[in-house]
Amino acid sequence: MSAFSIWHMQQPHRGSERSFRLGILTGWLDLVFPPVCVVCGKPVAIETGLAEWRPLLEERVRRHPDRAYDLLWLGGKPPQPGVSNFLCPHCLAILSFSGWISCPKCGGQVDDESPSPDGCDWCRRERFAFKGVVSLGPYAGPLGEVILRMKHPSGERLAHCMARLFCCERGEKLRELAIDCVVPIPLFARQRRRRRINSPEILAETIAKYLGVSLETTLLRRVRDTRPQRTLKPRERWKNVRDAFSVEVSIHDVWRSKLATFWHHAIIRQGPTADTSHDQDEHAKLTSAVRANRGPYHPRLRDRRVLLVDDVLTTGATCHAAAEALLRAGAREVFVAVLARGQGDDDSVAAAMPLHETEFRPW
Ligand SMILES: [Zn+2]
Ligand SMILES: [Zn+2]
Questions:
Q1: Which residues are bridge partners to 310 per DSSP?
Q2: How much distance in Å is there from the Cα of 233 to the middle of ligand 2?
Q3: Which of 11, 152, 154, 296 has the most neighbouring CB atoms within 10 Å?
Q4: Nearest-ligand number for the alpha carbon of 88
């Protein structure tokens, strides 16, 4: 990958005409400085890059001029300009997890072709505050190793690339959720300083750009330091993150939400509203129970469908705690997007495993 393509990949959304020219320029520079795979470091074949996707890109830009930037890197399958310049075909095939069927409630792998929305055997009895999970693959083998490498200071490029791969592979599922805003799981200030790279934020930024919705990085805060979840047993994990997140609301919004609540009660007193009359499923009951216990609304969250983004989900405790905070601040529904889904204690195993002992050795 040339220095210019890295720079271009990290740029925020720009006007269509300029993005288009930049894309073409990036492509030509890649011809001069051939891009290399971000995972294995081997050169990426040029024929999978510019030559193949340029006609397709030009046609799409003509049809949707306002979405040119997205199309520059997510031009659709099969050429996949977004990832074919950064991943070699071998790594792309390994990390795409095209055959991965996941449980819509917890994101874990299931055998059933059409998994039940009530959850799999593992999660059926769990009462998560989030409504569903979209995952790319299992937190083991190649994906486990890639995620560990993403957390290193040098893993930023890899994180950007995996975020694009996630959008290419799971974009349809994400669009079906009709998300209004994207919120990354925040790190505590000390964790942020230590890690230097915030992979959930990189992932969230790319997903928000892909979905064309707002990215909210300052809404949700980690209000206290927690021990690393991977060092704890499943039961301790729930305790560790309880009330660890909150949404800060200004004094102005406190008064606004008090007025809104007063108005709401005034209407309810006059008779039942449409909102209370319909049948509620199990999740809706839980959501309304959390929201009944809410603090003041945040205007940017009120009645919005929020996508929480993290790199790994294992017990679901962290995402549950964060989703509760979002629901209390007025969010209508919370969904979760994660790169990898850990099963049981898998993530502690993967974290303890040195990189060279994993099965994935493309180099
Ligand atoms: Zn590779
Ligand atoms: Zn499940």
A1: 338
A2: 19
A3: 296
A4: 1
